[in-house]
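Supplementary Methods, section 5.1.

A reviewer requested that the exact input to the structure prediction be made available. We therefore reproduce it here, unchanged from the version used in the analyses.
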Amino acid sequence: MPNLIVNTTDDHMRHINYARLSCAWVLLLGLFGCATSVDVSQVNINNPLNELKMLKENLQKARQEHVSVLSPRWFKTASQNINKANKLSSDGNTAGDFVTAIATAKQALNRANHFAKVAAVEIAPAIAARDAAIKARVPELYPSEFEIAEQRFSDLARYIEQDSVKTARNETRQVQSRYQELKIRAIKEHKMGDARKLIKMAEKQSAHRYVPTTLDVAKKKLKATDEYIEKKPHGPDVQRRADDLLKAARHLKIAMDTVSAWSRLKLEDVFVSMEDRIISIQKLASGAKDRNMNQSLEEHFHTIEENIKSRLESQKFLNEEVTRLQGELKVANKEMKSLSEVKRKRQEEQKFQAKFQRVAELFNPNEAEIYRQGTTLLVRLKGMNFEVGKSYILPHHYPILNKVQKAIRIFGTQRAVIEGHTDSTGGTAQNKVLSQQRADAVMAYLVNNGAMDPNNITSIGYGPDKPIAPNTSNAGRKLNRRIDVVLLVDN
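The structure derived from this sequence is encoded cell-by-cell as follows.
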C-alpha cells in the first residue's frame, strides 16, 4: 500500500482559493451582523434559567450527533454564547446581555443542526469513511496523516456552512479516498500484520504437530482476508474479516501455548490440574465448602452450567421485581401530586439527600467523589484508570464499578451518561477517540452486568476538552484523566 501522497501544487492553489473564500465569508458575516439584530423574542424572559438549562441539553444532544464536526463554526458560536450566558447567570445577571447570549446561542445551534443535516446527505461517503478510519485506530496509528485528512474534512463542513454545497460534493470523493487509504493501511500493517506474526510464530513452534486444526483455521482466514482485500480494498466486509482473522490468530497462540505446556506434563497431571480449577469454579458458583470427588469432569461442567442457569433465573426475577417496584413508584408519584407543592418538594429533597448519603458512603475518598448537580448525580471515578493508550478495564477496578451499579440501584435511575476525559498530552483527535473507547468500555460493563438498559445509557468521549485542573503539572493531568458517571435522577 503506497503512502498517502499530498499534491503540494494543488494544495497551494486550494488554500489560496479557500483563503479568498474565507475573506469573503468574513465580510458577509460582518455585513450580516450589522444589518440584522438578534431575535430575543424566542427567549422566555419569565424563566430564562430554564431556557439556559434546555439549551445546554440541546447542545449536549447535538454533540452526541456529531454536529460539532459537521458544522464546526455555528456549533462553536452556540457553545461560546452558552458559556457566556452561564457566566452571566453565575454573576446574578439574567437579563440584558444574558438574554442576548441565550438568543444568539439558540439561533447558532439551529443553524448548526441545519447544516449538519445537509452535510449528512451531501458528504455522506466522507463521513462513513471517516468513521471507518477511526474504528480502525487511524488517529492513534497515524496521527499526522489523520490530521491532514481531518483538515480536508473540515473544509467540506465549512463549504456546507457557506452554502457551497456543490464544491463540498465535488471534493467529497478525494476526502473519502484519503480516509479509506489510511484505514486499509492500518488494517494491513497492524491488524493483519499482528495476525501474520502470530501465525508465523506458531508455525516455528511446531503448531502443525500440536494444534493442526487451529493452525489451519487461522491460515485459511489469512488467505481469505488477503484475497478479499485484493479484490475489494474498500469493501464493506474488510474490517470484520480483519477482526475475525486477528481473533483466530490470537486463539491459535493461546491454543499453542496451552497444548505445548500440557505436552510436557503427564496426562494425569493435566487431569488433576483441570479438575482442581473446575472444582474451584464450581465451589465459587455454588458456595459449597467441600469438593465433590465423585464427579467426572463432564458432571462438574454440568453442575457449573446448572448454577449459571439458576443465577440467570434469579437475575430475571430480580429484574421483574425491580419493574414491579418501579410501577408502584409511579403510582406513588401520582398520589404525591395531590400533596401541596411545598410539602412534595420537601419530601423529595429529603429522599434525595438520604440516597445521596447512602451513595457517598459506598465509596472511600480514593475511589470516587460524589457531586450533586441539580437533579443529577456525578460519580467521579478517581480510583479508576487505564493502561497508557488502552481502553480495556483492569480486573482490580471491577469492585469500583460494582459500587457504581449499587449507586444506580439506590437512586433507581433509568438514565445515565458515561463521560470519558483525558489530559492534553498528545493529539486532540487521538485523545477523543481514546476517551470514547474508555467510556464505551465502562458503559458495556454496566449494561452486561444488568445495571442499565442499553437504550437508556450513552457514552461520550470529550478528550481534553473539559479539564478540572491545569494540565501544567503531573497532579493536574492525573485529575483530568478520568471517567465521570452522570446519573440523571428521576424524582
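Residues 165-204 form the longest helix (40 residues). These observations are discussed further in the main text.
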